[in-house]
Amino acid sequence: MTRSLTAFMRASTRSGGRPGYRAGVRAVAPLFPAVLAFGVSFGVLAQAAGFGALASIVMSLTTFAGSAQFAAVSVLDAGGTAAAAVGAAVLLNARYGPMALAAASVFRGGRLRRLVEAQLLVDESWALAQRDGEFDRRIMIGAGFALYVGWNAGTAIGVVAGDALTDPATLGLDAAFPALFLALLVPLVRDRSALAAALIGAGVALALTPITPAGIPVIAATVACLVGLRRPAAAHAPSYERPPGARAAPPCRAEEAA
Amino acid sequence: MSAAWVAVLVVGAATLALKGAGPVLAGGRTLPGASARVVDLLAPALLAALVATNAFASDGELVLDERGAGLVAAGVAIALKAPLLAVIVVAAVTAALLRLIS
């Protein structure tokens, strides 16, 4: 697994058939150990918080969203009510509304199929699917499926094996996630609008972290996309020279519309 | 029903709806000009927010800890055009080593 994202991207844009799903699985492979380990932690913590084995496993199978699951479990563990646990978890997952909306145009088929495929959307699969200024549905599904397997296998291991296992933070695995998101953000920042959206988004999220419940900062960061309403300056619209080896980056729709 | 099961079922249903709403209602459609520009910028805005909160937020507080150091190391690896796996390993190893010695 040493091929770069760039290589995956080329492979995925070249191939028209099934390899797109496999490219998604390969793209997410570097994260697999971390997701498995956090799945194990979730299984252990849910048990400790009084979730039965079945409830822990069903939650990973149906919710499939790490931060929301940890939040719900920790609220109940701290003696909170079911309503408080649900509130915290739903707030954390509210970001999936705008994330899925951003990807919506590439979903195909009937409503049920779109609904089912959308369930494989999590932060990592959504981020990995950002390719060439478009959202690659197959990458999202391949990556999401691999993450689903890892997350649920981890949960089951955690439920069964209990706390005989190491805290993933000791292995630095919690640092893998911001690193992944940064690596995927960099190629998206290819014009001033995208840079402004990224900086404002990060700024809003950090500013709100100390003063709002968890989950709000990331949702509020979506206001940054309103810089897209600004009329793009004609001066920087046409030129997209990139150095050799740079990721293929066609002009985004904002610029094409200029 | 126990509080745990209420949380499992309600959070599961809410998540299904949150993930599914956009693709079910707007799937396969190309959005008109201005809204497409706005939706295009959701990706960098949300990714940047995920970077910020995953690296610097902890229990509702801003913190500078080993994850931040891992992020800086990842930034260097990205600037050096390292493959994704290397970027992730560099971040994790940096954080793990700092925790080991602190």
Uncertain stretches of chain A: 1-16, 233-258
Number of domains of chain B: 2
Question: Can you give the mean pLDDT of chain B?
Answer: 90
Low-confidence regions of chain B? none
> Structural class of chain A, please?
mainly alpha
Mean pLDDT of chain A: 80
Radius of gyration of chain B: 19 Å
The counted number of beta strands of chain A is 2
Strand content of chain A: under 5%
Distance between the termini of chain B: 45 Å
Straight-line N-to-C gap of chain A? 40 Å
User: How many strands, what sense, and barrel or not for the largest sheet of chain B?
Assistant: 2 strands, antiparallel
Describe it.
The complex is a heterodimer of chains A (258) and B (102). The termini of chain A are far apart. Residues 1-16 and 233-258 of chain A have low confidence and may be disordered. Chain A has helices spanning 5-14, 19-28, 32-48, 53-62, 66-77, 82-93, 96-103, 111-118, 123-128, 137-161, 176-185, 192-208, 216-220, 253-256, and strands spanning 130-131, 134-135. Chain A has two domains: 5-188, no CATH class; 189-258, no CATH class. In chain A, helix 2 crosses helix 10 (137-161). Chain A is globular and about 55 Å long. Chain A has 14 helices and two strands. Chain A is mainly α and 258 residues long. Chain B is mainly α and 102 residues long. Chain B is 77% helix and 4% strand. Chain B has helices spanning 3-26, 33-40, 42-56, 66-79, 84-101; strands at 57-58, 61-62. Chain B has two domains: 1-30; 32-101, no CATH class. In chain B, helix 4 (66-79) packs antiparallel against helix 5. The chains are: A mainly alpha (258), B mainly alpha (102). At the A-B interface, helix 4, helix 5, helix 6, helix 7 and helix 8 of A face helix 1, helix 2, helix 3, strand 2 and helix 4 of B.
